[in-house]
Write a structure and sequence with these properties.
The protein is α+β, with helices and mostly antiparallel strands and 396 residues long. 19% of the residues lie in helices and 34% in strands.
Length: 396
């Protein structure tokens, strides 16, 4: 009975181990030339088993070769042509999938994943799984054009882009053209993304792209044509009537029926314009705001200067209410005296008279006026001195 129980436990343990350490993946997969591929090899980790080695081998033309090996010393890439192109995850327990980048045609073959574990009783357990890989060259598909966040109708001066995307074996070469296929076209870019740093009205037009790769077919694919429209926001939506006799006119709105008819006929997006009231008699000056502010400041400065001058002149008059009148008159007379003897004449100069007239009291609005005429004593002394100096004798 004890032997039977031990046998049942052993079978259950074997089944449990097989269920946990079973490798899962795909049998066949197809990779695209110059692209990347992942060959899955996954198992359920168990605390009773410790992973010892992971080996990936390639069998091509019945010649096996080890591509990758992981053991206690680290990871090793044994084939030189795979160096820098293959890797196995390190930090995902139970995941030992092989990742191959930049696939070449010679990478086709049978890849075998071989994992070895050590049990607690130091016994080794090994599992294998083979995946067949076929690397093919895929011709490029028809490219699709995607607009930026602003769409295909963009305001003038904005920044936008057009992206051309296609599937196929890389590398894929892109070319952008402005115009319609079969007509006059201009090559504008050799990149997948056509950038517009600052849109101009001249950028309006139709665009399309072409995609090509180095697949065996060497077929070049062409996208559909898209219309890029650049709107000038500075132009008014309505026009002012030419008649100046009408003071106020209202732009006639466009009916939705006409817009729908126009959209169906042209195949383009038509936006409903807003109704604007326009005054014919008013015309904007078009002056910038900073010029208007400068003119206002200059006008205020001129008015301030004029008021200041007027107030200063008025204050000067009020501070000097006195008027002084000075009159200095000197009448020099010369007298001639003839004695009648021997016809001789004697000239005598008259005495000069000097008077100083001045007003000592302030005169304000002719209400009070006081005039005092005084003779200066010093002036008298000076006059007497002059009379004694200028005495005229007999004239011979």
């Amino acid at each position: 009975m004890e032997k039977l129980m031990w046998l049942v436990a052993l079978v259950n343990s074997f089944i449990f181990c097989n269920a946990i350490l079973e490798l899962t993946g795909t049998h066949d997969t197809e990779g695209t030339w110059k692209s990347s591929i992942t060959l899955p090899c996954i198992y359920g980790p168990s605390p009773d088993f410790v992973q010892q080695t992971v080996i990936w081998t390639l069998v091509r033309d019945q010649s096996p070769a080890t591509v990758f090996r992981r053991d206690s010393s680290g990871d090793h890439i044994l084939l030189s042509r795979y160096r820098g192109r293959v890797s196995v995850p390190k930090y995902r327990p139970g995941d030992v999938s092989l990742e191959i980048e930049k696939l070449e045609i010679t990478d086709s073959g049978d890849y075998t994943c071989k994992v070895t574990w050590r049990a607690q009783n130091n016994s080794l357990l090994t599992r294998e799984r083979t995946t067949t890989v076929k690397v093919v060259k895929v011709s490029v598909t028809k490219p699709i054009i995607r607009a930026g966040n602003l769409g295909f109708t963009v305001p003038k001066g904005a920044r936008t882009s057009l992206t051309c995307s296609a599937n196929g074996s890389p590398p894929i070469t892109y070319r952008w053209f402005k115009g319609e296929p079969g007509g006059n076209t201009v090559l504008v870019s050799n990149h997948a993304v056509l950038m517009f740093d600052s849109l101009r009205t001249s950028d309006t037009g139709k665009y399309y792209c072409e995609a090509e790769n180095r697949a065996s077919s060497q077929v070049m694919q062409q996208s559909d044509t898209v219309q890029l429209t650049v709107r000038d926001l500075m132009k008014p939506a309505t026009t002012v009537p030419s008649s100046e006799n009408k003071a106020n006119t209202t732009a006639k709105p466009v009916s939705e029926r006409d817009l729908i008819t126009t959209a169906l006929a042209s195949g383009r997006d038509v936006r409903v314009p807003e109704t604007h009231e326009v005054t014919a008699g008013y015309r904007g000056t078009g002056l910038p705001l900073y010029l208007i502010i400068l003119m206002v400041v200059l006008c205020v400065a001129v008015v301030f200067v004029v008021v200041t001058v007027i107030l200063c002149r008025r204050k000067t008059k009020e501070d000097n209410p006195y008027e002084v009148t000075y009159q200095n008159t000197r009448n020099d007379t010369r007298r001639q005296t003839c004695l009648g003897v021997n016809g001789k004449c004697k000239y005598e100069e008259g005495k000069p008279t000097v008077k100083n007239n001045f007003m000592t009291q302030p005169v304000k609005e002719n209400e009070y006026e006081t005039i005092s005429i005084k003779e200066n004593a010093e002036c008298k002394i000076l006059v007497n001195a002059m009379e004694s100096e200028y005495e005229v004798g007999d004239v011979q």
